[in-house]
Write a structure and sequence with these properties.
The protein has 23 helices and 25 strands. With 709 residues, the protein is of the alpha+beta class. Strand 1 and strand 2 form a beta hairpin. The radius of gyration is 29 Å and the shape is globular. It starts with 21 loop residues before the first helix and ends in a 24-residue tail after the last helix.
Length: 709
């Protein structure tokens, strides 16, 4: 549990605070473009308007906020929608980390910086998790991006400096909320950005700086936890000695936080951490609370878990029932010492409990309304998008790619989506002409090359890794690959034998010829026939995400895998299985695979543990082999793709040149696709929209195309 600024021994900072010293701030004021502190050479503060490019957007720094833990905080915005974000900058300075150490830590950082429940449910357990983790491969920095302003909230360390000690009832509430969050962390499954599922996650970095306090109003507060050790400790200099995170250490560190809050300070006169063994430091007002914190710290019989500790806390005798544990009591009012009749006391407690229940339901039960509100804030229809420049614009995509297939979708009996998007604002306005082209080698996308040569105005692609520095991108939806096997009605069928899922490793073994019969995976004795679709982007994404761009594995894949149209595969797959000829496995883009039932889409796991399914039933549960998916009561789960839980999901972009010559046209085309009408049409065509679409909007006038004049 750190109470001091991180020490970088190779930098002679006069204040021993290189992340946030006064000299560093003076350097930034005098030389805004300085790369290093003029005093000690430590990396300088990011200048205002600095841009950070990530996979989910580009972010601009607006203000330096200070330091916290192992990094610096900045307020910022997400450029494409101007929404506020908080940026936390982590440093790997060259004097403290050699090139190999820095590279390894950056690679680990992007895999672990962020957590979400493995079941995909959007639960508020008061843990601040990054929206995106970014590693600057060309420099010595990493960044986390968090939506909104919550991460810039006051730390408990700052609270102590401003308001001094907390009352006992306030300390109880801090403990109650923090233990509830730790109980959730220590008992649930979580998914990291890499897709890895972790059971029983440990915080490992509990301190006055990693607990934030949000003052909801003068009477109530909420405690949030941030800065998990799994990514925060990556930036400790190699000389630092850290304990291995564990449940007992989480509880012990939380006990020390409570002690400091109650006493009103964290260090003694010699700037050493205050010792809880010094009985003279403790307040005498609440002996039960003191006994509880003793156990939490481990000075007496320790608790075995956060759940045990919280139950014990809730059972403590409360000396002042009228003061809810969540209430910050006005000190002057308390000193009046008036008495409250017992009956009024009981009514007050009931009212407070009722308020707590209402808070829970309003926060969780009405989450759907929040999602609806987000969707309702979108521009309604194509014709409502302003500022579309006049003229004819040519854009491209792969001839056998996702966008070419999406444009064939018919939202009505006589109209293709391509026609709707050619002149989305009607006659005598901008005209967007789609010209598909083919790539001889998908590792060099021909549509992107034509864009670079200024032979098109913009392009539609999912090949984000080919977006070079002279190009930029706007996300308009999500695509992905579904891996499917025969959905036979026989008792012995593959989905049931595989328990509805397959790991990336097993998939890799099948597609490189290491596994050749289904009995090797617990299925029937039947040869495996791996097939691939004809869409070049789909094949490229499979090579990248499943085969890991390993040239040897790709060569093996090309030797044994046959390509054919997904539609042909779906026609053959069940018959060949039922006749005992062969067990086909294939994969394909969402728009060709999600709304059929000849092939059962398998859930995908990164390892052999928890798997994520992309296809859900209308009851909000993932499909399983017992479901009758032929009834078409299925949907692609938006949260699974938005939160990057599905290992074979990826965004679809409008790509444009940064020279500004056609930026307005690309931007406006993307805006058209991001309207309510556009998102609904893309969803119906088989893509995943950028946000949840409420059921009452589906197949409504907001989602139907506006008739063309």
């Amino acid at each position: 549990m750190s109470l001091v600024e991180p020490r970088y021994q190779d930098y002679s900072c006069s204040q021993n605070a290189p992340l946030n010293c006064e000299q560093l701030k003076q350097t930034a004021e005098q030389f805004p473009k300085a790369k290093f502190c003029l005093e000690c050479g430590f990396p300088a503060i990011l200048p205002e308007k600095a841009e950070i490019k990530g996979s989910r957007g580009t972010y601009q720094v607006t203000k330096f906020l200070g330091s916290r833990g192992m990094g610096r905080l900045y307020s910022g915005i997400k450029i494409d929608d101007s929404q506020p974000v908080v940026i936390k900058e982590y440093l790997l300075p060259s004097r403290s980390f050699n090139t190999e150490e820095a590279s390894q830590r950056q690679e680990t950082f992007v895999r672990v910086a962020g957590v979400s429940p493995a079941d995909g449910k959007n639960q508020d357990f008061r843990l601040i998790a990054p929206y995106e983790a970014i590693a600057d491969r060309q420099g010595d920095r990493c960044y986390t991006i968090t939506k909104g302003n919550l991460e810039a909230s006051q730390t408990l360390s700052q609270y102590l400096r401003e308001k001094a000690a907390m009352k006992g009832e306030q300390v109880r509430e801090v403990l109650n909320q923090a233990l509830q969050t730790l109980q959730f962390l220590h008992s649930q499954k979580f998914r990291l950005p890499s897709g890895q599922v972790r059971q029983d996650l440990i915080h490992g970095n509990i301190s006055l700086d990693s607990l934030l306090i949000l003052q909801n109003n003068p009477q109530y507060f909420t405690i949030y936890l941030c800065d998990l050790a799994v990514w925060e400790r990556l930036f400790e200099p190699p000389v630092a000695q850290s304990s291995i995170p564990s449940v007992p250490i989480d509880l012990k560190d939380l006990g020390r936080v409570a002690f400091y809050l109650w006493v009103g300070r964290a260090v003694d006169s010699s700037s050493q951490p205050l010792d809880p063994r010094d009985t003279q430091q403790w307040p005498s007002s609440d002996p039960d609370l003191k006994q509880f914190i003793y156990r939490l710290i481990g000075l007496e019989t320790p608790f075995e878990s956060a759940e045990d500790a919280r139950q014990a806390l809730l059972q403590l005798k409360k000396e002042k029932q009228a003061d809810s544990a969540a209430t910050i009591v006005n000190t002057e009012q308390k000193e009046k010492g008036f008495r409250i009749p017992l009956i009024l006391l009981g009514l007050l407690v009931l009212l407070l409990l009722g308020g707590g229940v209402w808070y829970f339901f309003s926060k969780h039960i009405f989450k759907v309304n929040e999602d609806s509100s987000e969707f309702e804030q979108l521009v309604p229809i194509f014709t409502d998008v302003n500022g579309v420049p006049p003229g004819n614009f040519t854009y491209t995509g792969e001839e056998k790619g996702t966008w070419s297939n999406i444009l064939t979708f018919r939202p009505s009996s006589d109209t293709h989506l391509e026609k709707l998007l050619t002149q989305p604002k009607g006659q005598n306005t901008a005209k967007f002409n789609y010209k598909p082209v083919s790539s001889l080698n998908i590792k060099s996308s021909e549509p992107i090359e034509l864009l670079k040569k200024k032979q098109s105005n913009f392009t539609m692609t999912s090949l984000e890794d080919q977006v070079t520095g002279d190009l930029d991108k706007i996300k308009i939806a999500y695509d992905g690959l579904l891996v499917f096997v025969p959905f036979s009605k026989k008792d012995q069928n593959l989905p049931k034998a595989l328990d509805g899922h397959i790991s990336l490793e097993k998939l890799r073994q099948i597609y490189t010829g290491q596994v050749t019969n289904w009995d090797q995976l617990g299925g029937p004795h039947l040869p495996i026939k791996p097939l691939a679709p004809t869409e070049p982007e789909a094949v490229r994404q499979f090579q990248k995400m499943v085969l890991q761009d390993n040239e040897q594995q790709i060569a093996q894949y090309q030797k044994i895998v046959s390509q054919q149209l997904t539609e042909e595969t779906q026609q053959q797959i069940v018959t060949k299985f039922d006749e005992g000829e062969v067990g086909i496995i294939s994969y394909g883009i969402l728009s060709k695979t999600w709304n059929q039932c000849a092939g059962y889409p398998l859930a995908i796991s990164v390892d052999e543990k928890s798997a994520t399914q992309a296809l859900f039933r209308l009851n909000n549960q993932p499909i399983n082999p017992s479901d009758n998916i032929c009834d078409k009561r299925n949907r692609l789960d938006v949260e699974t793709f938005v939160n990057k839980l599905y290992p074979l999901g990826y965004p679809l972009f409008v790509i444009y040149r940064k020279d500004n010559s056609i930026k307005p046209a690309a931007y406006k085309f993307a805006e058209i696709l991001k309207t309510r009408q556009g998102q609904c049409l893309l969803s119906e065509a088989g893509l995943v929209p950028l946000q949840y679409i409420p059921n009452n909007y589906l197949n409504s006038n907001d989602c139907k195309p506006v008739p063309q004049p």
